[in-house]
Amino acid sequence: MKEKILNNQDLYQMLDSLIRKPKPFWEEFYEDRDKEIPFFQTKQPDENLVEYFHHYIKPRTALELGCGPGRNAIYMARQGCEVEAVDISENAIEWAQERAADENLQIRFRCGDIFQMNLQEDSYDFIYDSGLLHHLPPHQRMKYIAFICKVLKPKGHFGLVCFTPEGGADITDWEVYRHYSMQGGIGYEEERLKELFKKEFHFHTFRRMKKMEQSDDLFGEDFLWTSLMELRPSLDDFI
Ligand SMILES: C[S@@+](CC[C@H](N)C(=O)[O-])C[C@H]1O[C@@H](n2cnc3c(N)ncnc32)[C@H](O)[C@@H]1O
User: Fold this and answer.
1) How much of the chain, in percent, has pLDDT values that exceed 90?
2) Relative orientation angle of helices 141-151 and 190-197, to the nearest 10 degrees
3) What separation in Å is there between the alpha carbon of 237 and the centre of ligand 1?
4) Domain that holds residue 214
5) How many domains does the chain have?
6) Which tens digit of pLDDT belongs to each residue from 138-195?
7) Does residue 137 sit within a domain?
8) From the alpha carbon of 70, which atom of ligand 1 is closest?
């Protein structure tokens, strides 16, 4: 029987079919490297990521989700981390590999959808996402958080950069499906974002990104939230 809904997987598949396919969209997005996109014009890492490394964390292993052209993965590798970085776009991964090679840095870049990746459980001290979550449709968020909790080590850290309402579209979760679109990315109110993570994570920091100038050593746009979280212990950790 075609188009059946007999279980959760069928339901998720139906919802996926209502939203644009991510792979072709992101491949085309990276075709022209000279585009006027804020993070295309800079190789600098996020200002909040640099703050985390200076003041809060010293990870040995790090995973970047949706690494794009690699500026944050490269920063983490320069800090001595063993870095694995994933992106769905081959064009983005190629670009990131070229940049890492220019600096003689060893980073394990992998092209693929984070939801199809087979990564080992409890294996990263730190996971970073700068700009992926707000491009995920609402029904994929639970899977996204479950994935992070699975591959992060106990008490591991998670860093997030995500659209504020000024940075992204002001739409409800239901409207995404009513209009078959995330309108360029979902803008999150503070409470909406905290609601998603507060059960599994403790927030160390939650603030707007600081606006930086092109000439600065760091990247920053004030229409983005930044947060550093720590995985709460689960019941399994006590058994
Ligand atoms: C806004 S860009 C941010 C790029 C990079 N983090 C930066 O800030 O320079 C979002 C990235 O997420 C990637 N992406 C989107 N959906 C993905 C998925 N399901 N799995 C892996 N990567 C994905 C896109 O290809 C894109 O590079």
Assistant:
1) 92
2) 50
3) 32
4) 58-232
5) 1
6) 999 999 999 999 999 999 999 999 999 999 999 999 999 999 999 999 999 999 999 9
7) yes
8) 9
pLDDT per residue over 23-70, tens digit each? 999 999 999 999 999 889 889 999 999 999 999 999 999 999 999 999
- Give domain status of residue 41, yes or no: no
**Ligand 1 contact, 140 CB (< 6 A):** no
Q: How far is the CA of 92 from the centre of ligand 1 (A)?
A: 9
pTM equals 0.96
- Indicate if ligand 1 lies below 6 Å from the C-beta of 137: no
Which residue puts its alpha carbon closest to atom 7 of ligand 1?
68
What pLDDT, on the 0 to 100 scale, is given for residue 41?
Answer: 83
User: Tell me, what CATH number does 113's domain have?
Assistant: 3.40.50.150
User: Is 11 inside any structural domain?
Assistant: no
d(CA 235, ligand 1 centre) in Å? 32
142 in any annotated domain: yes
Give the pLDDT score at 239: 63
Cβ of 68 below 6 Å from ligand 1: yes
Question: How high is the pLDDT of residue 200?
Answer: 96
Distance, CA of 15 to CA of 92 (rounded, Å) = 26
Candidates 69, 144, 157, 162; CA nearest to 109 is 69
